Amino acid sequence: MIGEAIGEFAGKTIGIKVLSGGKIETTGQGMGKILGMEATTVFTGVGTPMPNGVFMVEGDGLITNMDGDQVMVKITGIGWASGKGWKGSYRGAAYQMTQAPKLASLNKVVGVYELETNENGDFNMKVWEWK
After folding, report:
1. Domain spans, the chain
2. Second label for 51, Cα 20 to 30 Å away, from 12, 22, 34, 79?
């Protein structure tokens, strides 16, 4: 069951690299909120193409709030093209790790996310607690 909102970010793709086997590495950066606090995010994900047209996605990210507290994030999921250019939809799970006391509740939360990209690679991402 989906619980409370954990975070929401908007940003853009800042790098794309084609790897062996047709894998695609994407790096992005954005701004938004984590647990209601203003924050920035940077991430890199690798999409592995599957025979059915879906990409298996794995990635790592770093969220930093305005006080300098950091959260490391691991994601897994799937994604698929939904239009021209880089337009796509992604869904999956997010695992957070932090030593910051005010963000420590994230250490015991599995997040579920939705990420939408437009044809230019701009993204909007929402993350909720999975109860």
Report:
1. 2-130
2. 12
List pLDDT tens digits, range 82-99: 999 999 999 999 999 999
Check: CB of residue 12 under 8 Å from CB of residue 120: yes
Q: Which residues of the chain have a pLDDT value below 50?
A: none
Residue 99's contacts (CB-CB under 8 Å, 6 or more residues apart) are none
Pairing state of beta strands 88-97 and 123-130?
A: unpaired
The whole-model pTM stands at 0.94
Instruction: Report the amino acid identity of residue 5.
Output: A
Angle at 33 between CA 130 and CA 63, to 5 degrees: 85
Q: What's the CATH number for 2-130?
A: 2.40.160.20
Distance between CA atoms of 13 and 27, rounded to whole angstroms?
A: 6
Instruction: Tell me the two tokens of residue 16.
Output: 């794309």
Contact 62, 39 (CB under 8 A): no
